[in-house]
What does this fold into?
Amino acid sequence: MNSNEKNKSFKSFILITVIQVLSAYYLYRFFFIPPDMPALDTEQWWGPYPMDLDHDKSIRPLTIEFSDVMINDLRERLLHRRPLQPPLENVGFTYGFNPRYLNQVMEYWHNKYNFKEREQFLNQYDHFVTNIQGLDIHFMHIKPKNIAGLEVVPLIMLHGWPGSFREFYDVIPYLMAEQPEQKIAFEIIVPSLPGFGYSQASVRPGLGPAEMAVIINNLMKRIGHDKYYIQGGDLGHTVGSIIATAFPENVLGFHTNFPVLLSHRAALLYITCGSLIPSLIETKELQPRLYPLSEHWSRLIEESGYMHIQATKPETVGVGLSDSPAGLAAYILEKFSTWTNPGNKKAGDGNLLKKFSLNQLLDNLMIYWATNTVTTSMRVYAESFNEKQNFLIFDRIPTNVPTWGIKFKYELMYQPDTALSFKYKKYLQSTVVEDGGHFAAMEYPELMAKDIIQAVIKFQKFWKFEKQESNETPPLHETARTVYEFTVKSINGRDVKLSDYKGNVLLIVNVASQCGLTTTNYQQLNELHEKYHQKGLRILAFPCNQFNGQEPGTSKDILNFTKDRGVKFDLFEKVDVNGDNAHPLWKFLKKAQSGTIGDFIKWNFSKFVVDRNGVPVERYAPHVNPLDLEKDLAKYW
Amino acid sequence: MNSNEKNKSFKSFILITVIQVLSAYYLYRFFFIPPDMPALDTEQWWGPYPMDLDHDKSIRPLTIEFSDVMINDLRERLLHRRPLQPPLENVGFTYGFNPRYLNQVMEYWHNKYNFKEREQFLNQYDHFVTNIQGLDIHFMHIKPKNIAGLEVVPLIMLHGWPGSFREFYDVIPYLMAEQPEQKIAFEIIVPSLPGFGYSQASVRPGLGPAEMAVIINNLMKRIGHDKYYIQGGDLGHTVGSIIATAFPENVLGFHTNFPVLLSHRAALLYITCGSLIPSLIETKELQPRLYPLSEHWSRLIEESGYMHIQATKPETVGVGLSDSPAGLAAYILEKFSTWTNPGNKKAGDGNLLKKFSLNQLLDNLMIYWATNTVTTSMRVYAESFNEKQNFLIFDRIPTNVPTWGIKFKYELMYQPDTALSFKYKKYLQSTVVEDGGHFAAMEYPELMAKDIIQAVIKFQKFWKFEKQESNETPPLHETARTVYEFTVKSINGRDVKLSDYKGNVLLIVNVASQCGLTTTNYQQLNELHEKYHQKGLRILAFPCNQFNGQEPGTSKDILNFTKDRGVKFDLFEKVDVNGDNAHPLWKFLKKAQSGTIGDFIKWNFSKFVVDRNGVPVERYAPHVNPLDLEKDLAKYW
It folds into this structure.
């Protein structure tokens, strides 16, 4: 190889290295660096313009009403519903809601469902509305009766689609029962999400899950809760998760029965890679809930047609459901069959009454029918998958709100705790249930209630522990303002307070004896020292063995080495500059002057300039020679 | 390297080569080898059991009837339709059918659509039903009045979803107009596909597009047409394409206004690769119809929600559409807006009346409403994407039926002719139209009619040409039964009739002078010749330069070379053994004895054994040495 060729091959080597480092960096960013938190306007107006700044902010009582006009109209429609074509032979629910069984449900709705009694049932809890950001938002508010000696636990419970506040009617009594041994009393708030049931829908595009999160957080503040707990599944999970991410200061704990990350790239990569060796990421018992991925994906594809059409054409599909009670019932009740257990598809009646009563199911339907809100409820899918896709971005931003998941066996998706903790940094626990599906609050109310209570106890413990922790002094490198607050050890083992350097310009550098850069750097650092010592420059050299082990020796070895080179500037004891054990001074330097592609120290001879006030003001990479700093340093003399 | 290491590295080399060859072979298979034709039962029974073998096979007239009972019920529903929630501000059709505009359509349907007049309009053509495989199949039959001196052209026109036989009402008059200069007269058949409109739906699962193709082909035979032309778009394209693939003997030509391959792997690979250098596969003007792929994919995703839900839950989504005329109108008419031009979404009325009249659109709706068949029509999606996915398999099987596409600018998908010809081996032409969308027959009836006429003329020419071709003697290698029918040239240029070898056992081999196998082979061929000449063995060696150019010389060079080696067996002139120019004898040999992974000759010294009757009976690969054949040859002495 002649020198020209050598030069060429060296250049290619450098080029390839640069490309590899860059691509590694971008892959890392793509998978592991959370996106910026999307800006949320906490006062965005969703009602008609002009915006009414002085609008009524009172909380007004509401009574659920099934008017006679509505009931008669509904009964007419049920009576005169069009005969359906017979189903294909022996298909059960595999082509959707079996029309033969639908006739039986319609009969019940028409003849047996007692509208007035059910109205009363729904009114057993107190209902209210209050105007938030231009929209009347409905909620139930259930207050504890006896709170003497108990801690009141404000809990908001968030329904999903195609659910409603009705989802929680069977859980609430278990939660509100006195729990003297736990010393807590629940105060429960159950809203209708905007566009659902008795909550108004936005008049203009843009109200997706993130914007719902803003409204719900504002609602809780209106009610008087600055700190509260959240429970949610399905869309309620999504909204709750966004509140815990965007407003962590308001959330004491997040309990989810849909513990799933829909768009966390690293978590999805992790789960995908896990399919190669499942035992690495999930226990043997739980692996079948996740693997083979293909099987679970095909269930998801089979069950997501509604989402696809609602995300793209909610107005189109909504018309028939608004106009026809049979259409609405088939569309919504199918989910209560198939999402509760995929095996239900084989049954001619979808096993619908195995876990639910028709009254339960029709109550939920009535909330959609009476308010004529099926179309407005479906718009949230279009607002989720629009260009902003805010809700997917929030999924990728970590939160420190303590989180607890309950995993029912037939839920539409399953993810291991290790994946969930990619986002939920304080993922405390999962409860694994060997039955149950997507509508857990209605299917297993007692079990759900018990789990929520356990979670709240754990959340409270978590905060007690955090409080203890936070009473301790935070680490110095987090709070320090100048390098003068740090103490280091000289190469001879003496404590040196950096405040001794007050008034000097400092050049702080990590050194090593066996690096390709060693000769030039020591030579030029000496030269700088000679030239500018008079003007107040002090060079502080910290040996470090973290880069390819190029500073392996003891303090004595290092001293001998530097003596040979006639070093006159100040030398200190060997330290770590990266990692958890990095010296606090170096943690501080890196925080104050972060690097181009991450704040970690890249190699030996990284250089920090500290001004005469002790503030780190410049950082130079290892390849910048000490003498190249002369020009920049000039401004500090 | 010691010999052990050499051996190892040679083994690895062989292993890697084998793996590469195998993977290349499997990739080739995956992309380029068509699957086997799925078996289709041409008598499958779709009606209720017991199967009625003697069922009425007559063709019975049908009159389209809008009964007063039906009209009154429909009007009631329209009048009492439930008020729709107002749309979001300024969204046009971007969230689906705009409910404000839907009200106007409903007003028209209720007050202005003249049911009796439209009934008459629909009855302007003769309607019939006949029972095919247990189902009453409806069709219109329009016969030419004056056929003196004209060739009658039987043409079946196949509608799509959510279309019907109404799609063709505006095209038919243009086709039926006398075309004296073309000397043809159309006889048009327009069926309702099974489950659509006046054709009965199957009572059991399994009637997908391939099974529809069987029924339609049987219908044409019932009507008396063994040979006919097909026109189709959307589902009509899919069914037509399958008929042209499974029953090419019945199809004279296929005209499609949806020229698209949904699952042809090689074609899709080709289109995907084409996105790197679009100019390689499509003209500059047409590239924007295809690229960037991402843009076209996102339109497809936006427009395929209906397909997703119909493929998975047709019964569920069908209920509201069966029960509510408003629901049906929104669901179906939205497609006539958005699939005609994606720009229509921005308009508050979806530009619906820009290309269509409400009478046209409501006629089509009435066919679904009056027959209550929207649910049964949607089932074909579930039958398409079931486990068999027959319709996708047929997409990958080539057909020689002459095919002609017309490409409207805003059709949902676009593919270049070069991609289409992966399947349509006789893809004759594309007509490119600078406007128009998915419902072309209704949007541009005159243009469509003219294009169909042009296509039929071209199809007729194609067949005339084919007939001439087929009147010529088919190539000898296709018809020959023994090698004795061939004549070859000796290395000296003399004609040698192989019939001269009658009664001998022949070993026919392609040779080369500069191959690694040359020495061994010539040596051992000589040995075989010496040993078995007496018993009747004749060795026929054909020099060939197609393998790495290892037989570059002239006949003289080859003669010199073989003289040096004392060759006494028979040598012939240099030939090609692979490719179009291969010598007919070799084409015959390869056809008679095809190889393990394709019938092409793999290398020099492939060996064919021909028995004493002139029939090729064995084939050996190049690496089999001539002496290894001794044992096998023994049975022929």
